[in-house]
Design goal:
By secondary structure, this protein is mainly alpha-helical. It has a domain of about 25 residues. It has 3 helices and no strands.
């Protein structure tokens, strides 16, 4: 049995479509760059960004979400979200 690791390297240049240059900078990419720069300078950074929760949503938060979702003033749909209500 051979224990050697064989790695194949490919030399390809990736060419993006010109329309990619018209896209605005990616917001989270800019934020990550700023966080990294701050951390490299020794600054403490508290990241309140998105994560992967492991605990279920607490019941009071879930209940409030359901409450405000039912209030037609919180929708931007014509007719106060009538179409969504028809689904249920």
């Amino acid at each position: 049995m051979c224990n050697e690791l064989h790695v194949i390297h490919f030399q390809h240049e990736i060419q993006f479509a010109q329309r990619m240059e018209q896209l605005p900078p990616y917001l989270f990419g800019m934020i990550n760059k700023m966080k990294t720069e701050k951390r490299l300078k020794g600054d403490d950074v508290i990241d309140l960004g998105m994560g992967n929760p492991v605990d279920p949503t607490p019941a009071p938060i879930f209940q409030k979400l359901c409450e405000v979702a039912q209030f037609s003033g919180n929708t931007r749909s014509p007719g106060g979200g009538r179409g969504v209500r028809l689904l249920f």
